Structures are given as C-alpha cells and as structure tokens.
Input
Amino acid sequence: MTEWRNSNVIIVDDETDLLELLTGRFQRKGCNVVGLTSSETAARLLRTESFDLGIYDIKLPGMDGVELLRLSKEINPDMEVIMLTGHGTVETAIETMKLGAYDYLRKPYALSELDVIAAKSLEKKKLKETNTGLKQALLAGTNKFSIIGQSPGIKNILDLTLRLADSNIPVRIEGESGTGKELIAKALHFWSSRAEQPFIAVNVGALPENLLESELFGHLKGAFTGAVTEKKGLVEVADQGTLFLDEIGEMPLNIQVKLLRFLESQEFRRVGDSRLRQVNVRVVAATNRILEQEVSKGKFREDLFFRLNVMKLTLPPLRERKEDIPLLVEHFLALHGRGQDVSISAEGLKALSRYSFPGNVRELSHMIERGIILAQGREIQVRDLLIPSRNPFETDEEDKLLPLHELEKRHIARVLASCQGNKTQAAKVLGISVRNLYRKLEEYKISE
Output
C-alpha cells in the first residue's frame, strides 16, 4: 500500500518486547520508524522532527499517553495518533478521540487490526494534504494551459520539456517577460507523473522580503507579529508536486541560503520552529534576468546558481518567431472573444507582423483583447490594436552602436515619461515588477 512508503511514524510504549515487534513491523512496510519507551524523550523529538503518525500507549511512566497526544496535536495538528489502551482505560481512550486521536485499540489486539487502522489514518492525512494543494491549484486554474506555435524555436523547447518532464532535476527557465515561462513550467508538471499532484506557483518578486520566507516555508503561531495562526508554507502545499518560483532573480540573499538548503535535502523549518520537516517537491525556477550576470554582481549566490543550473530552457522572444503570430492571434481571438464571431483584417495581421513586441506573447494577448473591445463591428482593424508608433527595438541612428544597458536605460526612461511618472503603470508596460523597476531606476540613476 503506497500510503506506508516513507511515512514517518513514532511509537511510544514502555513494553520493550511489544515496542520492538511494532517497530520492526512498520519498518518492513517501508515506514521511517522511531520506537521509544520514554514519553519525555518523545516530547523532545516531536519538537524537532515531523511525524505523520503516532502510536501511543495510554499508560506510560511520567507523562502519560494522553498528555503526549495533547502535545503532539499542539505542535503538529495534522499528525494522526492512535492510542493503545489496556483494561480499565477504555473510557480514557474514548476521551482522547475528543482531543484529536484518530482511533484507539484495546489490548490485546490483533496486529492486522492495527495495520488497518494505521493505513486508514495515513490515507486520511495524505488525502487532506493533497486536497489542500489541489484546492490551491484549481483555484488558480493551473491545469488549463495552451502552448501555441509551430516555429523551430518553440518546437525545440517543447521537445526538451517533454523529455525533462518526468525527471526530478531542477529546471531553470529563462526568457524575456511575456514569453510564456509559466506555461513551460506547467507543461513540465502536467506532462509528468506528478500531474495529479499540486502545481504551486509563487511570484518571488511580488512578495515583500519579510513575508517571503513565511510564504515559502510556513510559520508557527506567534512566530512574528501578525502570525495569529499556524500556517503551512508553499513547499508543504506542493508536496509530491511541483513548486514554480517565478522571478527567482528577485529573491533576497538571505532567503537564497534557505532555498539552497531545501533544494539539497528537501528539508526545511517553518519560521519560529526548530523541527525539521521533509517533503518531495520538484522545483522549477524562472527569471527574465541573466543569472550569470547577477552572480558576478554579487546579487545571486553562486552555489544556488549552480544548483539551479542543472538544465536551462531559454524561451525565444516573439520577434524571433513571427511565423507563430497568426496562430497566436487565432488562439487569442477564441480566448478573448467569448463566443463572438470576431476576426482580424489582413492589414491588422500585417501590422502585427511588423511590430517587434517588447512585451512578447503577453503583449499580443492584450492587444487582441483590446482590439475586440474597440472594434466597430466583427473585424479588428489596425486602429483598434493601438500598436505603439515607435517600436522600442527600432533604434534611432545615434542609438545603433550603444551598449545594451544604455539602450535599456533609454527605453525605461521613455516608458516612464509616457506613463507620466506612474511607476506601477510603467512596470506593467515593461513587463517587470515594481520592485525591479525601482532597482533599475537606481542602477541607471534615472531621475523620477
């Protein structure tokens, strides 16, 4: 039964012969088992290790099994506990059910009966964890995606993605904003054996630094101001599935250290907790930066870079695969048209093919959506697309021999000016986070 495999079980009973029998039985089923005769030792271990199932004798010297149950549920509410009771403690065992015990067994009991109850308790815990992850995934609509294109660049990426899908190695996806990095991450997940498990995406650049660690790894109640309840982190929610870290280049250095440790061992600690927890998560990271340059600037850890650099997928910008524009337009007309019979004029399609799309596929999607709204009839005309008159990739004569960073500086300044200094709007046009925009304004010393 798959629910046994790699389950963490703690058994506490002062009858050493019975303890050895149970410990050996659960180990043969594939569980990671700790067998203890002391409830005090168990209490200390519960504060540092994470367990799926506890099996406690009610009658224990010192702290009894009821107190150990209460402590277990306080530390780890999701842990299931089975109580073992002798003659005269059945009423107490029934009371433990109110404290959160999964079930109890009265001594002497058949080992096969314990097997059945333990399997059901582990199945319940796994189902609860899976439902938590799938609920988040379904709310985000993560199992619905389309990758459109017949160009050689896209075909090559899709071929690599298919071949990498069932491996567990970290994958780094690079590409300009709007090229479809999250779609490739979803393909890596939904084309793999993890497809029925959660796909959890987090935009690293959109979270404040003081909340990022808690969001990723979770926290205990009272770990910091505002932590009014215990919270699972996204690495736990994504257990057995895929965690997609978008804009990984925005991650602060102190969180990079913790991510590196997690990638190497799949182990982590919640904020405010000393207990080590373990999950099985495939990590996919994406960035629109060139991480090699960030490493040389000291803004990205070299050891984390090499850990993520096992396999890199580089997505081509839309200007390098213009043969895909007609297919993409057809897709977005169907997507945004909501059942309307809307088309685009031949002149409109030609105008799109001449444009270089600094915002890539995302910008094209927005143009078609806008065109449907502005069209006076069922056909989108050139005027409805609102294509910018000056293409950022069509440089002035004096710009042609400028280095790339100077071109980027001038483009950011132009966009900021066209947005009347509105940084939120400028960041949206540029396809970067507001925090990234502030960083570039400071780096290039662009006056606000």
